[in-house]
Specification:
Elements lengths: L2 H6 L1 H4 L5 H9 L2 E5 L5 H10 L4 E5 L24 H12 L4 E5 L5 H10 L2 E4 L4 H14 L2 E8 L2 E8 L8 H4 L11 H4 L3 H20 L8 E6 L4 E6 L12
Parallel strand pairs: 1-2, 1-4, 2-3, 4-5
Antiparallel strand pairs: 5-6, 6-7, 7-8
Helix pairs in contact: 4-5, 4-10, 6-7
Length: about 250
């Protein structure tokens, strides 16, 4: 680690749970972020600022004026360009030491199979149930830890699903892929701007803990936030022995 990096990451290095060894692990790691919007913005920015060596961001959307209320990685002058390109510019400005791979494409089974296998941690920052299930399945197949977040209106949730642990649940253990429900989106339901920042920041924190070995991850626990009351609820989640994804 060079002198400039020692200074840049000094506040992490001072933490006994991280230190130089933990910071070096962060610097040698590769994070895959699915989604460059409300959750992906703060997640990616904190990971870049913290010195994650390689960040791959996957999103097929472009920056829209309505995004700027909450998607803090994007700016007025990036409206109309790919979100991954806009986010990449922001991350490079934050930390030029970080390698950013920006992929303007939609997450599907083929792309996820290749990308998840190369990552050390995966952050699900997407906005739809189908993609969440596909990301979870790829993480289970490749035994990669998944940090999943969601936010709509004033409600948010976040958890860690670590497929490296045999006793840990996967996303499908709690949210069955066979469930039928009406998909809700912020474009029709709305979302409280700071809510995505809170959830996305926690996703970054959990990813950094997994990469550095610091603390105790949220594995097997689902945190739910009621943003109106600013009240947290925690639910313990057991592994489902009949899960169609991780029990096979």
């Amino acid at each position: 680690m060079q002198d400039e990096e020692l200074l840049r990451y000094s506040r992490h290095i001072l933490l006994n749970d991280i230190g130089i060894e933990g910071q070096e692990r962060i610097g040698a790691s590769h994070a895959l972020i699915i989604g460059a919007g409300g959750l992906g913005s703060p997640s990616a920015m904190y990971l870049a600022a913290a010195g994650v060596g390689h960040i791959t961001v996957l999103d097929d959307d472009t920056v829209d004026l309505t995004n700027l209320q909450r998607q803090i990685a994007h700016r007025t002058d990036t409206v109309g360009i790919a979100k991954v390109q806009s986010l990449s510019q922001t991350l490079h400005a934050l930390n030029p030491h970080v390698k950013v791979t920006a992929l303007k494409l939609r997450a599907d089974e083929t792309s996820l199979a290749q990308l998840v296998a190369k990552a050390d941690v995966v952050l699900d920052c997407c906005d739809n149930f189908t993609t969440r299930q596909a990301v979870n399945k790829a993480c289970v197949l490749n035994r990669k830890p998944l940090v999943s977040g969601a936010a709509i209106q004033f409600d948010g949730q976040v958890s860690v699903y670590d497929a490296r642990q045999d006793a840990a649940p996967c996303y499908a253990c709690t949210f069955s892929p066979d469930a039928t429900f009406e998909e809700v989106r912020c474009s029709t339901m709305g979302v409280f701007a700071p809510l995505v920042g809170i959830i996305g920041s926690i996703q970054a924190a959990e990813a950094l803990k997994l990469l550095s070995g610091a603390g105790e991850p949220l594995t097997g626990r689902l945190l739910m936030l009621d943003g109106r009351r600013m009240e947290w609820t925690e639910i313990r989640m057991p592994r489902n022995p009949a899960c169609p994804v991780c029990s096979r």
